Amino acid sequence: MKIFIQNMVSLRCKMMVKSEMKKMGLPYSSVELGEVEMDDQISDSARQKLKVELQKSGLIIMDDKNAMIIEKIINIIVEMVHYSDAMPKVNFSTALSEKLNKDYHKLAEIFSKTKGITIEHFIILHKVERVKELIIYDELNITEIAFKMHYSSVAHLSNQFKQVTGLTPTFFKQLIKRNRTNLEDL
């Protein structure tokens, strides 16, 4: 049995869900972003109690089919952009379609109607956030970041970055360095 959980987008959320499951004595086989695979069926009262406990942390157990699909889309995108070192060998639309075993156009329609944003724009926003993280870590140069994030060129990365943030990646990097203060200088 699977339980789908909205707003579960980080490793901390996974740890919190595992902790609640253990406290309640609910056996599970896996906890992934947005879903828990249960070993057995759980009673309605246990499900309701879990729902209340998770809601305290902003996590919501979902019952609506479209909400579940949207949450799965979000979790797949977050996983692919933020937590995977290797970007997909296929484009995002094909990856989403394969992972969810549904037609991409249907997924895109449900997502856009509900979230008010296209899947493509949602992906761009997450890629730009990931690029910001990589710039802040200062381990890779812009060319390496463009390659890592599977942009066709540095210019393509720069254009998307500027459209979303209003800044070029280089200016963003300079801004971050300027705003950082050494501990010794405090």
Give an overview in words.
By secondary structure, this protein is an alpha+beta fold. Among the domains are: 1-63, Alpha-Beta Plaits (2-Layer Sandwich); 121-179, Arc Repressor Mutant, subunit A, CATH 1.10.10. It has helices spanning 11-24, 44-55, 65-83, 92-100, 104-115, 119-137, 142-148, 154-165, 169-179; strands at residues 2-6, 28-32, 35-38, 60-61. Strands 2-3-1-4 form a 4-stranded antiparallel β-sheet, sandwiched between helices. A hairpin with a 2-residue loop joins strand 2 and strand 3 (35-38). Helix 3 (65-83) crosses helix 5 (104-115) and helix 6 crosses helix 9 (169-179). The chain is globular and about 55 Å long. The relative contact order is 0.09. The mean pLDDT is 88.
Rg from Cα: 19 Å
Shape annotation? globular
The strands making up the biggest β-sheet line up spatially as: 2-3-1-4
Q: What is the CA–CA distance across the termini?
A: 54 Å
Average pLDDT for all residues: 88
SSE sequence, one letter per element: EHEEHEHHHHHHH
Instruction: Compute the number of strand runs.
Output: 4
Beta-strand level of the residues, as a percent range?
A: 5-15%
Largest sheet: 4 strands, antiparallel
Helix content: 55-70%
Task: Describe how the helices and strands are arranged.
Elements: E1 2-6, H1 11-24, E2 28-32, E3 35-38, H2 44-55, E4 60-61, H3 65-83, H4 92-100, H5 104-115, H6 119-137, H7 142-148, H8 154-165, H9 169-179
Helix pairs in contact: 1-2, 3-4, 3-5, 3-6, 6-8, 6-9
